[in-house]
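Entry 14. Ran structure prediction on the chain below.
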Amino acid sequence: MKKTITLFSIFFTQSSFGASIDEAVETLVSPITKALSSAVFFEINLFGQAMPLIVLWLVTAGLFFTIYLGFINIRGFSHAIKVAKGDYKDPDADGEISHFQAVSTAISGTVGIGNIGGVAVAIGIGGPGAAFWLFFAGFLGMSTKLVECTLGVKYRKINQNGSVSGGPMHYLETLLAERRLPKVGKFLGGFYALALVIGCFGIGNMFQSNQAYVQFINITGGDQSFFNERGWLFGLLMAFTVGAVIIGGIKSIAKAASKIVPFMGILYFISSLVILILSAEHLVDSIILIVSEAFSTQSTTGGMIGAMIVGFQRAVFSNEAGIGSASIAHSAVQTKEPVSEGIVSLLEPFIDTMVICTLTSLVIVSTAYPAGLMDSGLEGIELTSAAFAYHISWAPYPLAIAGLLFAFSTSLAWSYYGLQGWLYLVGDSFKAQLGFKLVFCGFIMLGSTIQLTAVLDFSDAMVFLISIPNIVGLYFFAPSIKRELNMYLKKI
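Output, structure tokens:
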């Protein structure tokens, strides 16, 4: 249910004020959003199924880098764990945060509501086979992450105060400057930064606070909750909590993420594992169903191609491999070896997509299908919640807590991504940092009170649009990354 109470409800009624904001913004932004979305998410016909070209663009990059780098997502996995643990820590290296803090921050930016509700939507559309292709796309995305996060560290900027600035805007600018196209590089860097700023207020802010509010209401009594129709109060509390963390910069964000990410991951893992144990009699059949449907030629959901498209789409939306955002967090790591951090980033799609999304898939297929919940009319996070509740009535509570943590941690990470984009555009200063953080927190409160669909769709389109110049840059850098990777692996 749309919540439209705002802080101004002290003076205005819900219907008159909140609705008027929704309506005015939707009227203004919707035409622009529709035009942009139709361009960014342009669909092609693939064996009778519609596939967004941008999804194919991202998945193809993952496939290329996986093969080109000799399946580094397998060869480098054990080393990634060692580096993240701190086995190769260099206290004398430039940087602000540890390897573990960097990967925790990046994971916090990708693990969100989509890991719970988005997977259910994917299975509802593409059938159980979508879970297999989601897993496979996550595997491919590991290689893309390695390339962009290596570049993030390699071309980062160490500021006079010891802070770090990095990300696609910096390595794209450098790439084109090296090819005697400095103005083009500056333009692409600026475009990336601007799109990142816009995107952070949507997928990393308003959407997260809105969904967090819905989850909070569900576990505090629903319509009887004190916070029901008091979205402004919940938003104020969440904004204050997020603000208290982000005011300290990347060190504070990384410290919080390094505590939250393991806790919420373990909480979700244990909760899912309990449900899977209770559904053990259906588990083997569910795995067989997922694999068989993934390669089926006949299906009401479009067969193999339909399942593949939906699974790929959910995966790239979830782990953001190819978007380049994660490289901004990894750029702040304390290391002298850019490739070492690229290898650490292999863990992100693995945890986000191959573990958390797969757990959700198994819970749904092993519970919702045998219980007939797929025909109940439920979808998204409601379907996932019903699957958890089928065996244990109170199971949705830890699920909701995990969802709240997912939303909170995503806001933390994206506040840093947006800030770095903003500082790239206007220059680094105390006023620029403080101003952005205050506006970001203000949008958190706004997101919990009203749902501006057009604004959210616009930010989604902008975020995926920047994957085009980012991946072009990755292809150009591929030979040098391969050389550095091989040299690094020989040293260890």
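The CA atoms of residues 43 and 436 lie 35 Å apart. Will compare against last week's run tomorrow.
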